[in-house]
Structures are given as structure tokens and as C-alpha cells.
Amino acid sequence: MALHMLGKDPESPEGKSPTVYYDDVTGNYLLQGWKALDSERLAELDIPEHETVIEFPRRMMQFFPEVAGGSGADA
To answer: Sign of torsion, CA 62 64 70 73?
Structure first.
């Protein structure tokens, strides 16, 4: 598996999160973000045991090639 970092949140105070990665083997994205901890919002979701939910800012969408006008990750 080869992960490619596509972008980090330019507004992150420490420059560590959120981050968008692309897996060139699976063609999937991996998202690093803030843990969703609000129990009221989480109660509205049907989350399987093997999944999790993260908070991810809208401004980070620019790092997805499909949004930025590309057809795939060339990182």
C-alpha cells in the first residue's frame, strides 16, 4: 500500500490535522480529522461497530482531485 498525502488543513494551528491521504492500491481516501464526540449527534447516526465518524472541515474538500478538477490522485 502506498499512501500519498494530498493536503493538510492550512488553518490547523499545529499543522497536523485534518489531512487527506490517497491509497493508490485501493483507490480510496483516508481522512484524518477530529474525533466526533458529541453524543447527541452520534445518536442520530447508525454507525456499525467496525466504523467511526470524524469531523472534517469543508475547506479541506479542495484536496480531493475530483473537486480540484483532476480525475485521480497523481501525488
So the answer is: positive
What's 26's DSSP letter? T
Which residues are paired to 31 by β-bridges? 20
Q: How is residue 16 written as a grid cell?
A: 497536523
pTM of the model: 0.76
List per-residue pLDDT tens for the chain, 75 residues long: 699 999 999 888 877 789 999 999 999 999 999 999 999 999 999 999 999 999 989 888 888 888 767 655 444
Give the separation between CA 17 and CA 34, rounded to whole angstroms.
Answer: 8
Asked whether the beta carbons of 23 and 75 are under 8 A apart, the reply is no
